[in-house]
Amino acid sequence: MAGFLSDLVQYRKLLLMIMVLGIGGTHLSGFQMSVINYTSPYIKKFINATWMERYGSVLHQETLTLLWSFIVSIYCVGGMIGCLCSGYLTAKYGKKKCLLVNDVVLLVATLHTGFSRRAKSFEMILIGRFLEGIGAGINMNAHVQYAGEISPKKLRGFVNVTSSVFLALGKAVARILGLRDLLGTEDMWNVLLSFSGLLALIQLLFLPFFPESPPYLLLQKGDKAGCLKAMKQLWGEGNYHTEFDDMMKEKAVTKGTKIMNVLEVLKEPSVYPQLSTMLLLLLSLQFCGLSAITFYTSEIFQTANLQESIIPYVSLGVAISELVSIIFCSSIIDRFGRRILLWGGYLLMALILVLLETSLLLGDQFLWMRYCSVVLIFLFIIAYGIGPAGAIASVMNEIFTLSTRSSAFVIGGIVIWLGLTFTGMIFPFAVMLLGPFCFLIFIGVLIISAVLIYLFLPETKGKSTSEITEEFKTRQFKKKRHQTVEKNATEEKTFCTKL
Prior knowledge:
By secondary structure, this protein is an all-alpha fold. 82% of the residues lie in helices and 0% in strands. It has 19 helices and no strands. 44% of the residues are buried. The model has no long low-confidence stretch (mean pLDDT 84).
C-alpha cells in the first residue's frame, strides 16, 4: 500500500488529468442516469400544469405516462446514437477533441433543461435529455479509452477502474443533491437537472491543458516526439522505455493496419475471442442482479420498518458503499489481477443472492430476517463494487489493440444501451410473474459467468496489449489443434473399423 501511495505522489499530474476526465466523463453519465428518478414527480406535475395552461384541459393519465416514458427513453436513444458515432470520431479526431466538442453539446443540453421551466416547455426537457444521451454515449466510450491509454503499465489497472469510480460517484452525487433538503424540491428540480452542465464546463476549461494520449499520438499520428512529450508531461521525469517499447512493438505488429470500423472488426476472425470475452463480461454485468436489487431496495427497507423519512438516506448509504468498494478495487486490482476479482466477485454475489432470496421468503415467519435483507443488500453492492464493477472496464481496455479498440467499444456500448432498455422494459414484468423468485435467474447467470471467466479469460495484469493479443491467439490455436487431433483420431478409428 505504501508503494501504491508513493506512485500516486509521483504521478500527480496524471491524477489531475484523471480527475478532469472523470468529472466530464462517466461521472456526468452516472449523474444523468440517476437524477431523473429524483425529479420525476416534479416534471410530471410541470407537464400537467403546462398542458392545462396551453389547452385548458387536464392531461389524461395515459398521455402523461407516455410523455414521461419518452423523456426517460429518449436518453437511451441518444446514448445509442452517440455510441455509434464515438468510434469514428475518436479514431479520426482523437479522444481529447471529441470530449471537448462533446462538452459544448452537453452545455446546449443543459440550457434546454435548465430554462424549460421558465419557457413553460416540456419539449425542451425532451431535447435536453436527447442531447445528454448523445453526450453520454460519446463520453463513456472516449473517457474509458482515454484513461486506459494515458496510464503507465504498473498503474494501468488503477487508472482503468477510475472510470467506474466516477460513474459510481455520479450516482452518489445525484442522490445527495436529490434529497429534499437540497435540490430535490419543486422549486429547484430544473437546477438539479442543470448541474451536469457545470461538470461539462469544468472539463471544457481544463482539459485543453492536458495532452492527447501517447498511444494515439505514436500509433495513429506517427508523432514520436509528441508521444514522448505527452509521457513526460503526464508521468514526470523517469525511464519509460518499457511502455514506449510496448507501443513500438504494437506499431510493428499493426504496421499498415488502419483503425478498423465496426463492420471490419465484426468481419475480422482474429478479434472474435476478444469480442466474445467482452460480450460475456458486459452481458454478465447487465444481468448480475443489480437491477433487481435496485428495484427491491425501497420495499425491503419499508418491510424492515425503517421510517419513511430516513429511507432516502439509507439508499444514499447504498450508493456510497458502491463508491467506496470500487475505490478499494482500484487500489488492489494491480496486486491481485483481474480474473480473481471477476470470478470471485461473481461467486460471492451469487452466494449473497441465495441468502437474500432465503431472507425474503422467510421474512414473514421470522421478523429478524427482514433486517438481514437490509444487510445483504449492502454486502451485495460491496461485492459488486470490489469485483465486476471495477475490473470489467480494465479488461475491456486491455484486450483490444488501438486499431480495434474504438470500434469494439462501439459494439460494447450498443450492448450496454440495449441492455439498459431491455431490463427497463422487461424486468418489471419478470417481477410481477416471479416475485422474489426472479433472483434465481440472476443466481444462475452469476454462477455460469464465474465458471466461463475462470476457464477462458486470460490474466491481463502487467502484460502489454501485444502480449495479451498473442495469448488469445495461442488459446485459439490450442483449441483448433485439439479439434484437429480429435478429428484425425475419429477418422483413424473409422478407417480401422472398416479394415
